[in-house]
Amino acid sequence: MDWNSLVANSFHAAFGVNAIAYAIAAIGLNIHFGYTGLLNFGQAGFLAVGAYGTAISIVHFDVPYFLAALIGMSMAVLLALLLGLPTLRLRADYLAVATIAAAEIVRLVIGSTVYARWTGGSSGFSGAFSNAFYNANPLPNETLHFGPVSVTPNRAWFMIVGWSLVAVIALLVWLLVRSPWGRILKGIREDEDAVRSLGKNVFARKMQALIIGGVIGSIAGIALVTGERAVLPNVFGTQLTFFFWTLLLLGGVARVLGPVLGAVILWLVFAVTESILRSGASAGWVPEALVSQSQIGLIRVMLVGLGLMLLMIFRPQGIVGDRRELAFDVR
Amino acid sequence: MAIGVVPRVARTLALVLAGLFVAVLAGAAFAPLAQASGSTESIRGTLEERTADDERIPVPGVRIAIEGEGFEGEGVTDENGDWLVELPGPGSYTAALDESTLPDEVVLRDAEDNPWSGEVRTGRSQVVRFNLGEGVARSASTLDRILERGSVGLRFGLLLALAAVGLSLIFGTTGLTNFAHAEQVTLGGLLGYTFAAGMGVPLVLAAVMVLIAGALFGWTQDAALWKPLRRRGTGIIPMMIVTIGLSLFARSVVQAFYGSSPRSFPHRSPVVDLGPTRLTVYDYVTMGVAAALLVAVAYVLLRTRWGKATRAVSDNPALAAASGINVDAVVRGVWTVGAALAALGGMFLGLSQQVSAQMGVNMLLLMFAAVVLGGLGTAFGAMAGALIVGVFIEVSTIVIPTEIKNVGALAILILILLVRPQGMLGRRERVG
C-alpha cells in the first residue's frame, strides 16, 4: 500500500472542500432536526438555492462575490418561508415528504433547459464565478508541503476560510442553543404542546429555526461550489441530503461539534476505503472495474446506505450524542 | 393539531406563496421563447420526434426555409436534430418547415405551428419549435391532444397505482413511510428485463416470475428486517431512516450489477389507432392486467377475512390485536403483496419506457404524491390518487415543457399537504 498517498488523500478528504461544506450543511440540519426536531429531508434544496443565487448574481449581474453570497443566503430565507408556511404544522413524516419534494422541485427547475438562460441548464456554471474569491488570496503563490501532503495556495486559502467559517458558525450555534431561544427550540423538540401551553409561539420558533438552519445550508452550498469551482444541478439531489443525515447521525445529533466530527470521519472513511480498493486493484485482488470513478461514487453511496441503517438500528446517538436528546416521536 | 395556533394571516400568506410556485410553472411555458445565445441574430431549434412514451428521437436532414427583411436562407437539421440559420439583422421573419423532407412516419403534431412567423430581436437567437410525433397526421385540436396525453397518463397512472398500493398499505398497517419501496419497482423492472430480454423467457411467464420474485423479496424483507425492528420497539421515524439507508444501499448495489445506462425491452407491439390515442397492444394489456389486479386487491380488502383483518389493523393495531387478529401475519401479507405488485408495476413500466437502476427512485416522489393525494394509508386513495397524478402529469405537458412535468405533481403534493393533509379519502385524525 502506498502510505504517502493514503496520508495525502486522507488529509484532503478529511479537511478539504467536501468535509467543510458537508460539516456546515449538517450544522444547519442539526438546528432543524437535532434541536427543533424538524425532519428536514430537503437540505440539498437550501444548498442549491444558495449556490445558484450566488452564481447567478455574479455571472449575470456582476455583483461582487460577498454581496452575491448574501443574495444566495437571502434566497435560502425565501425558500424556508415558502416551505415552512405550509408544512411546519404537519406531522414529522409528512414534513419529511414535503421537504424532499420541495428540494426536488428546486433541482428539477434549475436543471431544466427552460431556465437554462439563467441557470446554465444541466451543465450549470463553470468556475469563473468564483474568481473573485481566489483573487483575494493573500497567500504566497507557491505550493505548500507538509511531509507527503501538498496543498496548492488556492486550496490552502479555501481551507483556511472554510474552517474559520465552520468555527464561527459552530460558535454561533453554541451561543444560540444555550440562549433562552435555544431552550424553547429544545422544548418544542421534547413536547410541543407543553411549550405552547407556556404561551410561546411554537410556529414562529420553528420557522426561525428553519430559516437559520436553511441559511447555514445555503452557506454550505456556496462553499461547496466555490471550492469545487463548478455549479452543477445534479449535485443537489436527494442523495446529498441523506449524506448529511448520515454524518449528522454518525457524529451525534444535538451536539454542536457532532456534525463537524461526522463530516471529517465520513470523508476519512471514503478516502481510506478508496485507497484500500485502489491498492487492492493494483495488487490484483480487487477487480479493476471496481475502482473506476463511477464505481467509487457507488461504493460511497453503498457505505452511506449501510452506515445509515446500522447507525439507526444500533447506535442512533452516534459518537458524541445523547440518546435522550433524539427527537424521534411522531407528532 | 397546530392549526389553531397558526395565525390565519400565515395560512393566507402560505396560499399566496404556493400560488407563486404555480406562477413559476406557468412562466416556464413561455420561457423558451426568451432564450438567447451568441451576439448576432439567428433562428434555431431542435427537431425531435416525441413518441407516445416520451422518448425523444432527433430527426436529421429536414429543411427549414427562413424568409424576411429581404433575406432568404435555409437550415438543415444535423444528426442531433439541431438547426440554426444566422440572420442579417433583427426584424420579422417566417420559418417554414418543408414537410416533404420529413421521414415518412414522422408528422407535425400541430399543423398551425408551420410556418412560424415572428419577431427576432437584436442580439437574440430565436428558438422555433416544431413539435413532431409519429404516425398519422394529427389534428391540432386541444381536445385531441388532451385525449392523447390523457391516454398516456391513464396508462402511467394505472401502473403508478399498482406500484403505490403497497406503499399505502404498508403505511396503513405499520405507520411506516417506506422510501425503499422505489427499489422494489426497480427490482421488478430489471428482473423482468433480465428474464425476458436476457434469458429469452416469454413475457407472460417473465411477468409471473417477477411477481413471485417481488413477493419473495417483500416476505424476506419483513421477516429479516422489519419484524425484528418492530419487536425491538424501534420508532417509526428511525425505521423510516432505515428505509432510506436500505434504499441507498440497494440502489447502489443494483447499479453496480446493471450499470447506470437505461435499457429497453426488445419487444415491440403494434400501435392501436383509437381516436387520437396512440397506445400499443402491450400498453392495453398491461393496463388491463394492472386494472384487474387493483380490482382484485379491492375485492380482497372488502370481501375477505384477510382484507377485513388488514383494514382493522390499519384502523387500530392494538384493538385488532386484542380482538384476536394476528397483526404480524397481516403485516407480513401486506409486505409480500405490496412488494409483488410494485415489482410487476416496475416491469410493466419498463416495457413501455426503459429500465434502469434509477427508474424506481425517479418515480418515488410521484408515488408519494399519489398516496398523499388519495390519503395515506388508504388503498383506494392510493389508486385514485395515482390515476389523477398520472393523467395530470401527462396532460400538463400540453402547457409545460415535458422535462419538468414532474414538478407539477410535486407542487400538488405540497399543496395537498397544505390544504387537506389527510388526502381525498383519508380521515382527519390520521394527520395528528
UniProtKB/TrEMBL annotation, chain A:
One of its GO terms (cellular component) is plasma membrane. Keywords: Cell membrane, Membrane, Transmembrane, Transmembrane helix. It is found in: Cell membrane. GO terms for molecular function: branched-chain amino acid transmembrane transporter activity. It is a multi-pass membrane protein. The chain crosses the membrane at residues 12-31, 38-59, 65-85, 94-116, 156-177, 207-225, 231-250, 257-277, 297-314. This is Branched-chain amino acid ABC transporter permease.
TrEMBL record, chain B:
Pfam families: BPD_transp_2 (PF02653). The keyword Isomerase does not apply. The chain crosses the membrane at residues 156-179, 191-216, 236-258, 279-302, 333-351, 363-392, 398-419. InterPro entries: ABC_transp_permease, BCAA_transport_permease. One of its GO terms (molecular function) is transmembrane transporter activity. Its main location: membrane. It is a multi-pass membrane protein. Belongs to the binding-protein-dependent transport system permease family. LivHM subfamily. This is Branched-chain amino acid ABC transporter permease. It comes from Phytoactinopolyspora alkaliphila.
